[in-house]
Specification:
mainly beta; 23 strands; 9% helix; 53% strand; globular
């Protein structure tokens, strides 16, 4: 059979058996080519947990392992996890089958990459994970982390399909196809993506780029998804906002303008709602710079929240409730570049993030909080040093109806440093967090953490140690130590990494 006939037959297969068909297609495709194999990669991690003697718990072990096969035009991956299992459970499992039954969270996937020189086509199937535009359709809530010394300002669209990894969580089986149409075949570069899962959730995305010159461009993307939204929250029932699960559509428009002095990203999302009125959300991210000064800003808003039940201002495609209804942030930075052979730089940054969020309580209330962060960092090719300060969950307005819904104010001081040479690399990081009491019944809580890492590239060996300590009113409440040893192998046709960790509590 000719290769073109194999390609056409593949697309005629039903979606219920897409993964097995993809494997068959994979092997058929390889029978028609040469120089196919790149490398095989084996990964393994294992953690031994030693409990406190007074807890009367057993020693336990957990881990993950998997194999990746990389070919010229394809990727094959398979991973499995052993959850935390006591030694007695391991002893009681007799024979290979019973021991294999202890393994959980199987993750597998296959990807094929075709026509890379003409119309690049990528097909991925298995326990895939998705990000980028699809994650915004599932949950539009903006991030509340923020980095006062952020460097990147990339605009990334599409479904973000990724084959499973050793640490990824279990996902429903799905298939995704993406194709890139080059500018020479169309009047502008165009990328199309399609996705469907075994649960019949589906999405499609299209992105085009308009280049005005080498440094200025406009990018536009549209994504459409069909999701089954169901009521997984008991709070909705208590607030008479219960609904019957059904299929709903989500639409996302993303626009980016990039120039040397100004970058703007505008997002607008439409979500069909299980209530009488549909939902809309808007988000703007921007960056401008002038010589040593750089300014990032962001604003998120749900203008339709007043038309929805107060407890559910916006429900995303993953059935998750987006409780943030408004959020704004500003992040100025000063960057000093030194004219030396080590490419040294000094950065100062400050960020302020304010948001309005609805509590997930029987009586929903809007709370206005503020998060402040500041940092300074010195970096060059061989050495780095950074200090951070964070004051999070500062309550500005609103009265929390319950203690559990009250934002926990936290003040954190952190330090990190690294030093590298050709034969070794070393790093150290530490943090101290303080949770002040907010009433007469609460107590002062403090947490401390310290971690170190030593890597020896020539030996493919790294060692990591660390510890955590929690204090309440100055007394030891909980503490633990951990250590990990990692070893990797990298040959022409074989790669492997092994990690062994030890975790034991002190109190």
């Amino acid at each position: 059979m000719k290769r073109e006939e194999i390609y056409r037959s593949f697309f005629c297969i039903g979606r219920r058996r897409f993964f097995f068909c993809l494997l068959s297609f994979f092997f058929l495709h390889f029978c028609t080519g040469e120089n196919l194999f790149n490398f095989a990669e084996l990964k393994f991690t294992s953690t031994l947990t030693l409990p406190r003697e007074e807890s009367k718990k057993e020693k336990a072990v957990s881990g993950s392992s998997g194999l990746k096969l990389s070919f010229r035009d394809a990727d094959l991956r398979g991973y499995a996890t052993l959850p935390k299992t006591s030694f007695s459970e391991l002893r009681e499992a007799e024979g290979f089958k019973e021991k294999a039954d202890l393994l959980k969270d199987f993750r597998y996937g296959a990807g094929i990459f075709l026509f890379q020189k003409t119309f690049p086509l990528t097909i991925k199937a298995g326990s895939n994970t998705y990000s980028k535009s699809l994650s915004k359709l599932k949950n539009p809530s903006p991030s509340t982390t923020g980095n006062p010394l952020t460097k990147s300002f990339a605009f990334s669209t599409g479904l973000g399909a990724s084959l499973p990894t050793l640490t990824s969580s279990v996902q429903a089986l799905s298939a995704c196809a993406s194709i890139k149409i080059p500018e020479k075949s169309f009047f502008l570069p165009l990328e199309l993506e399609f996705f469907m899962s075994e649960e019949k959730v589906s999405a499609t995305s299209a992105c085009a780029k308009f280049s005005f010159n080498r440094f200025v461009f406009l990018q536009q993307a549209f994504s459409l998804g069909r999701f089954f939204i169901e009521n997984d929250s008991a709070i909705l029932k208590k607030n008479n906002a219960d609904f019957k699960g059904d299929w709903f559509f989500s639409l996302l428009s993303e626009t980016a303008f990039h120039s040397p002095v100004l970058k703007l990203h505008f997002y607008s999302g439409f979500q069909q709602s299980p209530y009488t009125s549909d939902s809309l959300w808007l988000k703007l991210d921007g960056r401008t710079s002038f010589k040593l000064f750089l300014l990032d800003f962001s604003y998120f808003f749900v203008p339709t929240s007043k038309n929805q039940p107060k407890v559910a201002p916006l429900i995303g495609g993953s059935s998750s409730i987006s409780r943030i209804i408004e959020q704004g942030s500003i992040n100025p930075q000063l960057i000093f570049l030194f004219d030396d052979k080590n490419a040294s730089s000094l950065r100062f940054g400050f960020s302020a993030l304010e948001n309005w969020k609805v509590t997930s309580t029987s009586t929903p209330v809007q709370l206005n909080t503020l998060k402040l962060r500041g940092a300074v960092a010195f970096e060059n090719r061989f050495f780095s040093l950074r200090f951070d300060f964070t004051n999070a969950n500062i309550l500005l307005q609103g009265s929390p109806p319950t203690k559990s819904s009250r934002p926990e104010n936290c003040q954190t001081y952190s330090f990190s440093s690294s030093f590298s040479r050709e034969s070794y690399k070393a790093s150290i990081s530490s943090s101290y967090s303080k949770y002040p009491p907010y009433d007469e019944d609460s107590v002062l809580k403090e947490t401390l953490s310290l971690s170190t890492k030593f890597a020896f590239p020539k030996l493919n060996l790294s060692l990591q140690t660390g510890g955590d300590l929690t204090l309440k009113e100055g007394e030891n409440y909980a503490s633990s130590l951990n250590a990990a040893l990692s070893y990797s192998i990298k040959k022409k046709y074989f790669r492997s990494s092994f990690k062994f960790a030890l975790d034991f509590p002190i109190l």
